[in-house]
Amino acid sequence: MTLRKEQSDTIILGIESSCDDTSAAVVKNGILLSNVTAGQAVHEAYGGVVPELASRAHQQNIVPVVDQALKQAGVAREQLSAVAVTLGPGLMGSLLVGTSFAKGMALSLGIPLIEVNHLQGHVLAHFIRKEGDDHAAPPFPYLCLLVSGGNSQIVRVDAYNKMTILGQTIDDAAGEAIDKCSKVMGLGYPGGPIIDRLARKGNPKAYAFSKPHVEGLDYSFSGLKTSFLYFLRDHVKEDPDFIEHHKEDLAASLEQTIVDILVKKLSMAVKQTGIRHVALSGGVSANTGLRNAFKARGRSGQWHIYIPEFGYTTDNAAMIAMTGYYKFGDGDFCSLDKPAYSRTVI
Ligand code: KG4
Question: For ligand 1, which residues put their CB under 6 angstroms from it?
Fold first, then answer.
């Protein structure tokens, strides 16, 4: 492995394949030049990600996606300074496609490999910057509510490479709960965007679902999921068309309950730490109700808020390339024999 010392530009290729999105992005000197993502519609029929199908689709997508990202950026492979890749956490079969590809590329080009933790990437998505962008990135330290299909965490971020989890779910993630509730309502997959769309037309106070009583800054969403399931079962017994007739109110009430749970613990974290710069990350941060609750805190002057662009809420390689860019500056490289991992904390 050699560092391209003669080259003054730092150009990082980022690769993300931890779940069901194959994504590649190029960052040059801290500016995002391209971000190409291929989703996988194949899972819709199953109401959830099927790991075996995800790995197969990654294998089909990885070459054209990386090729497109380099072409859109106007960057040749030989100009790359390093390859950054999500090493975990995620689905092992999916991760192996991206990591093997990235390792092969780094080896053949003789450049460093940089490992990125997927969750760290989500937390640092606020630093993604395109040419001419003037949005403010959060100053350190800040709190980040990371909510996705696999995680619900409150993270204290003291530096690009210094993060502490203050609280996290003890069972289901918020996105997982939304997806499962959507499934029992007979809606499509992923449920998050569908629930969001229906919720805009419903009454958030129509129904009350159980809220967890968990100590400290931890979350729990499995009780809510069960209470939602029993609630539907009881009502469908009396009226078989209950869900169809009330789906907007059900979606709005479910969304409101989840937003209340998320924001309550986050407010506690703000009080406990005295940190008022608060950011949102992860797939569920696309949710309109959650964004509105955040914006209300921002308007009232309680918090300085940071909400990512929609394209950087769900899985993307831009956040991986950007995190890789900072790690490159620190000389934080990874050995080619380091294996992918399915579970970890930040
Ligand atoms: O971060 P992400 O793309 O994947 C990981 O889990 O890592 O997050 C996916 C999750 C899914 O549970 C999906 O239903 C949820 O984010 N999601 C939403 C919305 N868009 C995506 N949840 C609520 N409202 C949305 N608009």
Answer: 19, 148-150, 175, 178-179, 190-193, 196, 282-284, 286-287, 314-315
46-56 pLDDT, tens digit each: 878 889 999 99
Q: How many A from CA of 193 to the centre of ligand 1?
A: 8
**Confidence grade of residue 1 (pLDDT, cut at 50, 70, 90):** low
140-185 per-position pLDDT tens digit: 999 999 999 888 999 999 999 999 999 999 999 999 999 999 999 9
What are the structural domains of the chain? 11-133+313-329 (3.30.420.40), 142-310 (3.30.420.40)
Q: Which atom of ligand 1 is nearest to the CA of 122?
A: 1
Adjacency order of strands within the sheet including 113-117: 31-38, 22-28, 11-16, 82-88, 113-117
